[in-house]
Structure formats: structure tokens, C-alpha cells
Amino acid sequence: MSGESVFNLIEPEVEVPSPRPRHNSKYSGNRAVPPTASTFGIHGTSAVVANMGGEVTEPSIHPAKKPTGIFGRVTGPMVKPSEFLKKNEGPLTASRGAPTVNKTKFLKSAKDAAKLKDDIPSRHDKPIMGLKTEKNYVVANAVESALAIPSKCIPPPENRAVDRADFGKVPAYLEEVKEEIKERHALVERIKAAQREAEERWSELSAEELEGLRQGLQRRWDALNSEYQSRGFSKLQTPLQKAHHEALGKELNAVEFAMHKLSRSHVFVYDDQR
């Protein structure tokens, strides 16, 4: 417990140094030196950066503080609030070509003093008291209603169908509908006639005719096939022989196609000569 003391709880006093005297520049006196290479206070001038020379006094060209830069120009003791500058009365108005105000025009008309309405009664005016009447308004209204000339109420004429100009006549659109129906019937008749005519041109081959055609085509195919196979294929063929060989092949294909068509049980023939 040695070394402990109540006095250690008290903070020691801190010595505050005395302030130094304020520095005053010997070059500018009581005025501050204008800033060097600053863009402040050069609005409206041709300078980009002010006081590039580092002058300790206010520069004569483009000063940073203008005489009318804060509160405007000095008014002086001759300013009167009642005599303010009005339109087209400035010193530079005529030089700018603006016309001056013609005081003979734009004049106000004379005030009309005639009263259009009665004055509002004041609070001191008293109404006329004691007025009485013996008129019975109920009886008076009944008499006026009985003696009044009634206004004649003529109902508007009703529109009758018989008064129309086209009453009893066939509408024009019905004629158009009839013509359209006739055209459709005629078209149907033409289609049916064409179908009947086409059916008349088709005829079915009998079994005997069909068998005769099949046998004839078979004989023709055998003859063409034997000739086609007998010639064979050779590189020594002349152009004429080669063309004849190709013609035989085409004719064989045509005969086979016809035999395939006639292989059906019912064959119809179209007569294009009718």
C-alpha cells in the first residue's frame, strides 16, 4: 500500500502559454495583400488569372475588389424615392433608338360621377314601421288563376308512315338482292351443265377392249425389248446408232407406263372430240 496518496487523484495544473502578438504585414498596412494567381473577382473582365506579378498593392488593371461589386454605386444625398426612373426616360433612350412616350396618348378617361345604384343604407337608417295591408293573398291568387288566359298547348304532329314519299314502294335494296340471287342461280346452273357435259365425255372401256389393248401393248413391249437387248452397249456405236438406242429406251418406258394404267379393273376414256 506504499506509494498511494489522496493527492494523486487531483489532476495537475497545465500551464497555458501566453499567445504571441498578431503579425501585421509591413507592406500592405491595414489592407490584405491581393491573392496571387487567383480567379476570384475577375468576372466580366478579359483576365484569366489575376495578379500574376505578385504585387503587394491593389493592381491597377483588373482589381480584385471593384467599387460597385458589393452594394452597387454610391447613391449620394440627392436620391429621392418618389422620383424613380420610368420607362423611356433614361439618358441613353434616344441614342438607342427607342421612341419616347407620347403623353398626349394613353390618357385615362374622365370619371363618370353618375350613380348606377342606390347607396347602401347605413346602420343609423331605420325602416318604416307600422305598414299594414288587408289583402288576402290566397283569394287574390285564386282569382288571378281563374281569370288568367290559359296558354294553348298544341301537341307536335306525329310522324305517320303513310306520309312518307316511298310508302308502298318496293325498296331499292330488295331489287339488288333479287338480282344477286338470280346471278347465283345462273352460276349454279352453269356449273351443273359443265359437270354434265364433262360426265358425258367420259366413257368406260369394256372388258374385251381392255384385254385387246393389254395384249397389243404386251406384244409391242416384247418386240421393243428384244430389239433393245440385242443391240447391247458398246463404245464403238455411231451417233445415229446411239440416238436410235436411246429412242428405244424412251418408247419402252412409255409402253410400260401405258400398261400400268391399263392394269386397273375399270378404265375410263375422255373424248375430247365432242
UniProtKB/TrEMBL annotation:
In the UniProt record, which is one GO cellular component term? cilium
**Region feature (Disordered):** 1-39
Keyword set, alphabetical order: Cell projection, Coiled coil, Cytoplasm, Cytoskeleton
Domain of life here? Answer: Eukaryota
> What is its subcellular localisation?
Cell projection, Cilium; Cytoplasm, Cytoskeleton
Which terms does the record give in the GO molecular function aspect? calmodulin binding
Stretches assigned to the Enkurin domain = 172-270
Which residue windows are coiled coil?
174-227
Cross-referenced InterPro entries: Enkurin_dom, Enkurin_domain-protein
- Name the chain's protein: Enkurin domain-containing protein
